[in-house]
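Inputs:
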Amino acid sequence: MLELKNISFQVAGEKGDDRIEIVRNVSLTIPDEKLIVITGPNGGGKSTLARLIMGIEKPTSGQILYNGEDITELSVTERARRGIGFAFQQPVRFKGIEVFDLIRLATGTKLSVKDACQYLSAVGLCARDYINREVSGSLSGGELKRIEIATVLAKKPQLAVFDEPEAGIDLWSFQNLIEVFEGMRANIQGSSILIISHQERILSIADEIVVIRDGQLALHGPKEEILPTLLGTDSAVPDCKMGTVTKGETAE
Amino acid sequence: MKPLDEIQKRLLSEVAGLHAIPEGAYNIRANGTSAGRASTANIEIIPREDGKGLTIKVKPGTKNESIHIPVVMTQSGLKEVVYNDFYIGEGADVFIVAGCGIDNCGPQDSEHDGIHRFYVGKGAKVRYVEKHYGSGDGRGKRILNPGTEVYQEEDSSVEMEMVQIKGVDDTNRVTKAELAKGARLVVRERLMTHGDQKALSTYTVEMNGEGSSSDVVSRSVARDNSYQKFDAVLTGNAPCTGHTECDAIIMDNGRILAVPGLEANDVDAALVHEAAIGKIAGDQIIKLMTLGLTESEAEEQIVNGFLK
């Protein structure tokens, strides 16, 4: 179980002497064996919240408890070793490191190629074609995204955090992505899943939905209660709008 | 003993591969003298009269044979200059493994300067691998100054892999090539320097024949207080294509100077250079940390992959 207690996060403003509050006093519990989706307008602080959970950013104030332990000051590595996994919104590229290397590092074992392939197959990639490819610019955005998700599957985290997994992938891949999450949801025993997303299809497989707006927790409750209030807003975008950016919105 | 890190383990396996009992033609030079030599029906290895090197003749049409000429030095204070001349006959296709390992535990410098000249006949193919490795904790430096000259006749192909990952204090590598019509040269250099090491690498490629091509790519890492200079000049004197690239990571107080140079003396010479130097991207380290690696383990994996 993950508990955020009064988490705030500020950054220095452009002038240097002012402070901008990205996350404001958020308290939230991610219970075990639940799939939680955090949604809300762009620029509202969702991705920052995900990065605070992984330890990529440290909160200005507040406390993060994981299975009862205060992890607020722990590094990314220490959090990863305690069972938190993280899929980046924009996957990182590496010259020279192959897909197999990355999956092997994720499992932390001397993995066989055959076992590594199962994680690629799970995200809809023909494993044989990808296992020895470099995780570099030679792969498309959608391919990198699926490999990113495969590394999180391979890590088998107790708490898996996905930061906008649908960003940058095509519709066909999106369908596959939903199936990946449905599969994870079906086997959620002993773990929990946190997804940052605007997608109605992803919201519809959630157990609970959290709405973050202007850095604050605006709504939190069971899907059945929250989702109807979001339909038609940019917190729950249907498939056909995927990938489009409305005027005035900025990518997070 | 400190356990080997990933880079060292891989390196050792590479060097051990080099020193395994070779098949085909070979000459093993240890501390300045030959420790074993064999010619084959198609490949003749002749020692020079002054003892300072070899003449290697490959008969025309020789296919899929290999030549191993490794050098090992374990005696502190030894300095040698060795000249090896390769004559590759028309249409031959051979694999040449050179390389030098120096272990210097003493107070004096050890130095091996290998000058390799390749005369590559019409339509011949050469794949050449040269690996350098230094070890030993003596105060004496481990110095390697390889000189390589390549003369390629029509439609010949030369692929060179030059690797120096660890332990060599000082290197000045000079490579020159001249390409006739339709000849193709590919160079892949991988270099890592650490401590106070210095490595200079200079390439001069002259494409003199129509349809000739060259591709010279260096991937390097400079750590600690080490210094590297990569200087590659491609000259197109005929309709040809040339590409040179330096891709480098700097760490700690490492310094790198990349000087790519192109000279086109023919309107149909198409030449490209690329150079990029920078530290390891922070998001690469964070990604590997989210998989449970520490920051230093992440750096090691990134460098190891980059130089693979």
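Chain A touches chain B at residues 54, 56, 75-77, 80-81, 85-86, 88, 91-92, 94-98, 101-102, 105-106, 108, 151, 155 (CB under 8 Å). Flag for discussion at group meeting.
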